[in-house]
Design brief:
It contains nine helices and two strands; from the N terminus they run H-H-H-H-H-E-H-H-H-E-H. The chain has helices spanning 12-39, 42-46, 57-66, 68-84, 90-111, 133-146, 149-158, 165-185, 194-210; strands spanning 124-126, 191-193. It has a two-stranded parallel sheet. Helix 3 packs antiparallel against helix 5, helix 5 packs antiparallel against helix 7 and helix 7 packs across helix 8 (165-185).
């Protein structure tokens, strides 16, 4: 008997349980650290006040977390409707649609918040790449990475046409250019920077790579369409037009 043989690797289920436990522990630790800043705007948000709630980063994040159960309920309702229609990937499609909206709209709201001189100071642009990264700081860099992270994560799960890194890069960059253009045109007292576009697009690509195993492929697209109802008549080719029964057959052609 060989006592020097290495023990078998742990089963996949055990590894998943360990990873889920570590993820829950990490989320709980992060919530313990940020609970005080997030709860600061809670009284104003509960009172329905704009100032101090929806015009602050902590207030927007708090409202995003509060509305998370509603987003899950909407995803469940969409998945149930799709399963009733016979769609195979009902849950994945529904979660992707709700995740794109719920994870992107709050960050767009933050980026479109007007500054103190909105409407007074002219629009400003910064077209030199990598110059603003130094002044952006770690918090600003992480925030810009997260602006279109949900879009990059869920879009290829929902649309097979976006299931490639170059297309996600183009999607993130295009959406970021629209945001920067809106900031400049609306004179929100914000700097429209090319570095914001680069970091936003990079965040979308990194998030897309994290969800690559769940990307929707072109082969799955026909299976995700609603199936016809049971007993519905199938489409049949129409028969060729037949001559009336009382019409005599054509006369034979005489031989040469």
């Amino acid at each position: 008997m060989n006592h020097n043989a290495s023990p078998p690797p742990p089963p996949r289920r055990t590894r998943r349980i360990v990873l889920v436990g570590l993820a829950v522990l990490g989320i709980a630790s992060a919530a313990f650290v940020v609970r005080r800043p997030l709860m600061m705007p809670a009284p104003r948000c509960m009172a329905g006040r704009w100032h101090g709630c929806l015009d602050t980063f902590n207030g927007v994040v708090l409202m995003t977390l509060v509305t998370l159960p509603l987003a899950v309920l909407v995803a469940w309702a969409l998945a149930r409707l799709r399963r009733a229609a016979g769609v195979t990937s009902a849950w994945r499609m529904s979660l992707a649609e709700v995740g794109m909206v719920h994870g992107t709209v709050p960050f767009l709201w933050l980026t479109m918040m007007p500054g103190a001189g909105a409407g007074i100071v002219p629009g400003r642009v910064s077209l030199v790449p990598l110059r603003d990264l130094v002044t952006m700081g770690p918090l600003g860099t992480v925030g810009n990475l997260l602006v279109f992270a949900a879009l990059g994560f869920f879009a290829p799960m929902r649309f097979a046409a976006l299931s490639s890194v170059p297309r996600i890069l183009a999607l993130g960059a295009g959406c970021s250019i629209l945001v920067e253009t809106a900031q400049y045109v609306l004179r929100l007292d914000r700097v429209s920077s090319v570095d914001d576009v680069l970091v936003n697009a990079a965040g979308a690509v990194l998030a897309a790579l994290a969800s690559r195993r769940w990307w929707r492929t072109a082969a799955e697209a026909p299976a995700d369409r609603p199936r016809p109802a049971v007993g519905a008549p199938a489409d049949r080719p129409r028969p060729a037009a037949e001559a009336p029964a009382d019409q005599p057959p054509p006369a034979p052609t005489p031989a040469g």
